[in-house]
Amino acid sequence: MSVSLKNAYASAGDMNVFVLDWGRLSGGEIMLGNTIRTMSAYRAVLSNVAPVGRRVAEFLSFLRDSKHINFYDVTIVGESLGAHVAANAAQAVKIVSGEKIGRVVGLDPAGPFTQNIKTLHKQDAYFVDIYHTNWGLLGTTSDAGHVNVYVNGGTSQPGCLQADFTGLMGFCSHSYSWRFFLAAFDKGYVACPCSIACKCPRCENICANGIIVGPNISRRTRGLYYVRSGPLA
C-alpha cells in the first residue's frame, strides 16, 4: 500500500512524499495471522497509535521550523489504524504550533476497540475525507470527516466475497480502501450525494451534482457520498 501510493503521488506532480514505516509497532505480519492471534496483537498495537502520531508531528514540525514546508500544504494519508496515527499527528501539530494540517485522508479508519484512543475527526485538519469500505466490521461506523465516501455501499467490496470469510474476516474489503484511492489517481471516480442511504451496494453513480473523489477531491466539498467501482487488483 505505502509504496504504491508513494509512487502514485510522486508521479502526480512536483511534491515530496514521505512513507512512515512503523514496523513492529504496527503489528506487522502478526496482523494477518489467525483471528484470535490477530485481535490480541491488534489490541496491543492500539497503545502505539498516539506515540507514533506524536513522532510524525515532531518530524513535520522540524520541517516547518526549517522552513521546508507549510502545514497547510501537508496531506497525511492513513489506512485502518494508520488513519488514527494521522489523526494523532495532526492533533499534536495543532497543540504545539496552534496550526492545522491541510488535509488528512482516512482509508477505512479502524473501528474495533478504538473507544479509548484519539480517532480521526474533521477537527484534526482543514479538510478530512474518509473512505468507507468495511463499515462496521474492521472499519469505523463514524462519519467523522468533512466528506464521507461509501464505496460500493461501504461494507463488502467486489471480488472480496470469498476472501472476506477466509483468514481475517473482512480484511479484503478493509484493504480495498487503499486500492480504491490508488485507482482514483487515474480513474477520476465520480460520487453522488446520499439521498436515502449511503450503504447501497448497487446504486448507480447518476446524479446532477456529483463530485470527483480521491486525491483530486475539492477541499470545499462537504457531506455523505456513495460511489461504485469494480474489483481492483
TrEMBL record:
<feature type="domain" description="Lipase">
    <location>
        <begin position="38"/>
        <end position="163"/>
    </location>
</feature>
<dbReference type="GO" id="GO:0005615">
    <property type="term" value="C:extracellular space"/>
</dbReference>
<dbReference type="GO" id="GO:0017171">
    <property type="term" value="F:serine hydrolase activity"/>
</dbReference>
<dbReference type="InterPro" id="IPR000734">
    <property type="entry name" value="TAG_lipase"/>
</dbReference>
<dbReference type="Pfam" id="PF00151">
    <property type="entry name" value="Lipase"/>
</dbReference>
<dbReference type="GO" id="GO:0016298">
    <property type="term" value="F:lipase activity"/>
</dbReference>
<protein>
    <submittedName>
        <fullName>Endothelial lipase</fullName>
    </submittedName>
</protein>
<dbReference type="InterPro" id="IPR013818">
    <property type="entry name" value="Lipase"/>
</dbReference>
<dbReference type="InterPro" id="IPR029058">
    <property type="entry name" value="AB_hydrolase_fold"/>
</dbReference>
<keyword id="KW-0964">Secreted</keyword>
<dbReference type="GO" id="GO:0016042">
    <property type="term" value="P:lipid catabolic process"/>
</dbReference>
<comment type="similarity">
    <text>Belongs to the AB hydrolase superfamily. Lipase family.</text>
</comment>
